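Closing statement on the 7TS sub-project.
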Amino acid sequence: MSFDVYAIREQFPILARQVNSRPLVYLDSAASAQKPRAVMAAMTHASETAYANVHRGLHTLANETTEAYENAREAVRRLLNAGSAEEIIFTKGCTDAVNLVASSFGRSLNSGDEIVLSVMEHHANIVPWHFLRERAGVVLKFIPITDDGRLNLEAYRALLGPRTRMVAVGHMSNVTGTVNPVAEIIADAHAAGALTFIDGAQMVVHGSVDVQALDADFYAFSSHKLYGPTGIGALYGKAEHLAAMPPYQGGGEMIGRVTLDQITYADPPHRFEAGTPPILEAIGLGAAIAWLEGLDRAAIAQHEHALYNRVKERLNGANWITELGTAPGKGAIFSFNVDGAHAHDIAQLLDQYGVAVRAGAHCAEPLMERFGVASSARASFALYNTLEEADAFVEALIKVRTFFA
Ligand code: 7TS
């Protein structure tokens, strides 16, 4: 399989638009990626030909929709190489998945139990655990990072102890692009008797993930960063853990039996999917995964690295720019500050040149504090970006910088 970025771009209609009379250069895919026609077509096709509620009908459309929904679950299973589709729970997204685990698994935690997180986590993988601190007296401990943005693994090991019940870390940082050695982190957590939750929101987009090889207990991601629709994501959980966990939300479809004075629950994954799920969105996610399966993912990763490297080469020697995170092997995310400029101003001025980047704390305030900055601008690369766009970004940035020099 080969990879032709120009052919790929043809499949993303939005990339043809202009912004401020310039060709759009979309470098905000880490926040949310654009969708190929295949994804939109799958959702439209289901709406037009086979749509009904899932799991409850005995009629043809209900059966066909249920099959399409469950096929999407199977696609997620393949994406993560889970052992069984029953270990895949559809959620609203990555945030919802963390809340599910913190709230459900969290009920087994007691005051003084410890959860190990890291300083580089997205708020989605911090705040739900803080709820447990507030509600149950659980103690949160944070793995520190090195100046180039790697986890300090020695410090991590020192945080593990007899009360550690969960280690929850990101696979790839949404700010620095650092890819964490999660197999090693998981093995150490297990040796200490703790479970592990891996936030794969960024990693699942840029590399291949194998939850069995990693031996992860839980692994989560969002569809909308993976070229799929919003409103859906998935949580992988080992069958043995899911079987022992109480429901997260109550309602239809998650029960065994309901009487006026008793309830029993369905088996996973349905136990954790109360109410009508985002059916079309699940089908869209399945289509996004199938679409990616038709591409050479190693070639895509190489292409994305080439984009990042182009930016780095072209800015080599620019003493007015500071990058956040330069860990070896990092993903194609370039977070930076320009001397004398606020990151918001940089983003707004780049927009004048058609270049879309994000600016702010990126929902990672502890990480910003660690780097001693309030915010940064961030260019994040996706499979549809070109070297010409990397150049356009650098050229726009050089012009924008003159406002502050
Ligand atoms: N974890 C990581 C590592 C993320 O990057 C994000 C979203 C989330 C969790 C939450 O995902 P959600 O789909 O549930 O919102 N990150 C970003 C970002 O970097 N800019 O906007 C959203």
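The chain has two domains: 5-29+296-401, 50-293. With this model delivered, the sub-project is considered complete and its resources will be redirected to Aim 3.
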